[in-house]
Design brief:
Strand order of the largest sheet: 2-1-3-4-5
Number of strands: 5
Number of helices: 4
Length: 129
């Protein structure tokens, strides 16, 4: 998980968050062990911004991969940072319910949960048969 945390931390620093000042970074591990990162990118025409997790997933797909095996999300703030509802569903498209999501702050790991814990009874690709 250290490599994912390092990349997610780098992504958090690179976030473009001039309005909220809420910097978030994410990193995902693909089916071949490669890692892909993303950061939040805000836009004056809200809600046209991009979440960090969505950016990491886009990088994974752009690299020709199709599975997320592990994820790190990191952000500043007094509370544990979790993926928003939309990003939980985006992760579900590429990951199983048992995929680990490591919730981190600048000081490191705060908690590890599964996607299924964050998005119970989710709708996914398997529903199409």
């Amino acid at each position: 998980m250290d490599d994912l945390l390092h990349l997610a931390r780098t992504m958090m620093v690179r976030a473009y968050a001039p309005y909220s000042k809420f910097h978030v970074g994410a990193a995902v591990r693909d089916e071949d062990g490669g890692i892909h990162g993303g950061c939040n990118v805000e836009n004056a025409a809200y809600p046209q911004g991009l979440c960090a997790e969505a950016g990491a997933i886009a990088a994974l797909v752009a690299a020709g991969k199709k599975r997320v095996l592990e994820c790190v999300v990191i952000g500043l703030g007094p509370e544990v940072i979790t993926p928003c509802g939309g990003c939980r569903q985006k992760l579900r498209e590429f990951a199983a319910d048992d995929m680990k999501i490591h919730l981190c702050g600048p000081d490191g790991l705060h908690r590890t949960v599964t996607l299924g814990m964050l998005l119970p009874m989710s709708f996914g690709p398997q529903h199409f048969g």
